[in-house]
Amino acid sequence: MALTIFAMVTAGIAGFTTQVASGSRINSLASVRAGALAAQINRLEVLPYDTLPTRVGCTSISTGLVPRTECVAVQDIVAGRRQVTFILRPNNTALRPDTVILERTRPRQYHPLNLF
Q1: Distance of CA 87 to the CA centre of its chain
Q2: Which residues contact 57 (CB under 8 A, 6 or more apart)?
Q3: Quick one: what percent of the chain has pLDDT higher than 70?
Q4: Residue 111: inside a domain, yes or no?
Q5: Is 40 a member of any domain?
Q6: N or C: which end of the chain has fewer CB within 10 A?
Q7: Which domain, by its residues, includes 11?
Q8: How far apart are CA 65 and CA 32, in angstroms?
Q9: What is the pTM of this model?
Protein backbone atom coordinates (compact mmCIF):
# COMPACT_ATOMS: atom_id res chain seq x y z
CA MET A 1 0.00 0.00 0.00
CA ALA A 2 2.75 2.46 0.95
CA LEU A 3 4.67 1.58 -2.21
CA THR A 4 1.62 2.36 -4.36
CA ILE A 5 1.17 5.79 -2.75
CA PHE A 6 4.88 6.48 -3.19
CA ALA A 7 4.67 5.55 -6.90
CA MET A 8 1.68 7.84 -7.47
CA VAL A 9 3.33 10.80 -5.74
CA THR A 10 6.62 10.24 -7.57
CA ALA A 11 4.85 10.10 -10.96
CA GLY A 12 3.09 13.39 -10.20
CA ILE A 13 6.28 15.09 -9.16
CA ALA A 14 8.10 13.82 -12.26
CA GLY A 15 5.50 15.42 -14.55
CA PHE A 16 5.74 18.70 -12.69
CA THR A 17 9.54 18.62 -12.79
CA THR A 18 9.47 18.11 -16.58
CA GLN A 19 7.20 21.14 -17.02
CA VAL A 20 9.41 23.33 -14.83
CA ALA A 21 12.54 22.24 -16.70
CA SER A 22 10.94 23.04 -20.06
CA GLY A 23 9.85 26.47 -18.84
CA SER A 24 13.32 27.19 -17.46
CA ARG A 25 14.91 26.32 -20.79
CA ILE A 26 12.60 28.68 -22.70
CA ASN A 27 13.26 31.45 -20.16
CA SER A 28 17.03 31.05 -20.52
CA LEU A 29 16.74 31.22 -24.33
CA ALA A 30 14.59 34.34 -24.02
CA SER A 31 17.27 35.94 -21.85
CA VAL A 32 19.95 35.16 -24.45
CA ARG A 33 17.66 36.59 -27.17
CA ALA A 34 17.18 39.80 -25.14
CA GLY A 35 20.95 40.13 -24.77
CA ALA A 36 21.51 39.68 -28.51
CA LEU A 37 18.79 42.25 -29.22
CA ALA A 38 20.34 44.78 -26.83
CA ALA A 39 23.82 44.26 -28.28
CA GLN A 40 22.68 44.88 -31.86
CA ILE A 41 20.63 47.95 -30.91
CA ASN A 42 23.62 49.38 -29.07
CA ARG A 43 25.76 48.85 -32.18
CA LEU A 44 23.19 50.61 -34.37
CA GLU A 45 22.96 53.52 -31.94
CA VAL A 46 26.71 54.23 -31.96
CA LEU A 47 27.30 53.89 -35.70
CA PRO A 48 28.00 57.17 -37.47
CA TYR A 49 24.85 58.55 -39.09
CA ASP A 50 26.25 58.39 -42.62
CA THR A 51 27.15 54.68 -42.39
CA LEU A 52 23.64 53.50 -41.43
CA PRO A 53 22.57 52.61 -45.00
CA THR A 54 25.53 50.21 -45.29
CA ARG A 55 23.97 47.99 -42.56
CA VAL A 56 20.73 47.29 -44.47
CA GLY A 57 19.88 43.63 -45.07
CA CYS A 58 19.48 40.31 -43.26
CA THR A 59 22.12 38.12 -41.62
CA SER A 60 21.69 34.52 -40.48
CA ILE A 61 23.54 33.57 -37.31
CA SER A 62 23.79 29.83 -36.71
CA THR A 63 26.22 29.86 -33.78
CA GLY A 64 25.53 30.47 -30.12
CA LEU A 65 22.61 29.47 -27.97
CA VAL A 66 19.95 31.15 -30.12
CA PRO A 67 20.37 30.64 -33.89
CA ARG A 68 18.55 33.54 -35.53
CA THR A 69 18.06 35.86 -38.47
CA GLU A 70 18.72 39.57 -37.91
CA CYS A 71 17.36 42.16 -40.35
CA VAL A 72 18.08 45.90 -40.49
CA ALA A 73 16.12 48.44 -42.54
CA VAL A 74 16.90 52.15 -42.77
CA GLN A 75 14.37 54.68 -44.04
CA ASP A 76 14.89 58.42 -44.54
CA ILE A 77 12.05 60.27 -42.78
CA VAL A 78 13.12 63.85 -43.53
CA ALA A 79 16.46 65.44 -44.29
CA GLY A 80 18.82 64.66 -41.43
CA ARG A 81 16.55 62.06 -39.80
CA ARG A 82 16.41 58.29 -40.35
CA GLN A 83 14.26 55.51 -38.96
CA VAL A 84 16.18 52.29 -38.23
CA THR A 85 14.17 49.07 -37.89
CA PHE A 86 15.85 45.99 -36.40
CA ILE A 87 14.09 42.60 -36.48
CA LEU A 88 15.42 39.56 -34.64
CA ARG A 89 13.79 36.25 -35.70
CA PRO A 90 14.87 33.24 -33.62
CA ASN A 91 14.90 29.91 -35.47
CA ASN A 92 13.26 28.32 -32.41
CA THR A 93 9.49 28.66 -32.88
CA ALA A 94 8.96 28.78 -29.11
CA LEU A 95 10.47 32.29 -29.15
CA ARG A 96 8.65 35.13 -30.88
CA PRO A 97 10.38 37.60 -33.20
CA ASP A 98 11.23 41.03 -31.78
CA THR A 99 11.23 44.36 -33.59
CA VAL A 100 12.89 47.56 -32.39
CA ILE A 101 12.41 50.88 -34.18
CA LEU A 102 14.64 53.83 -33.40
CA GLU A 103 15.22 57.21 -34.95
CA ARG A 104 18.63 58.66 -35.62
CA THR A 105 19.37 62.26 -36.45
CA ARG A 106 22.35 63.85 -38.11
CA PRO A 107 24.49 65.49 -35.43
CA ARG A 108 24.93 69.23 -35.52
CA GLN A 109 28.21 70.52 -36.78
CA TYR A 110 30.61 71.30 -33.97
CA HIS A 111 31.79 74.84 -33.62
CA PRO A 112 34.12 75.86 -30.78
CA LEU A 113 32.15 79.05 -30.06
CA ASN A 114 28.78 77.29 -30.06
CA LEU A 115 28.73 75.85 -26.54
CA PHE A 116 24.99 75.00 -26.41
Answers
A1: 8
A2: 71, 72
A3: 92
A4: no
A5: yes
A6: C
A7: 2-105
A8: 7
A9: 0.72
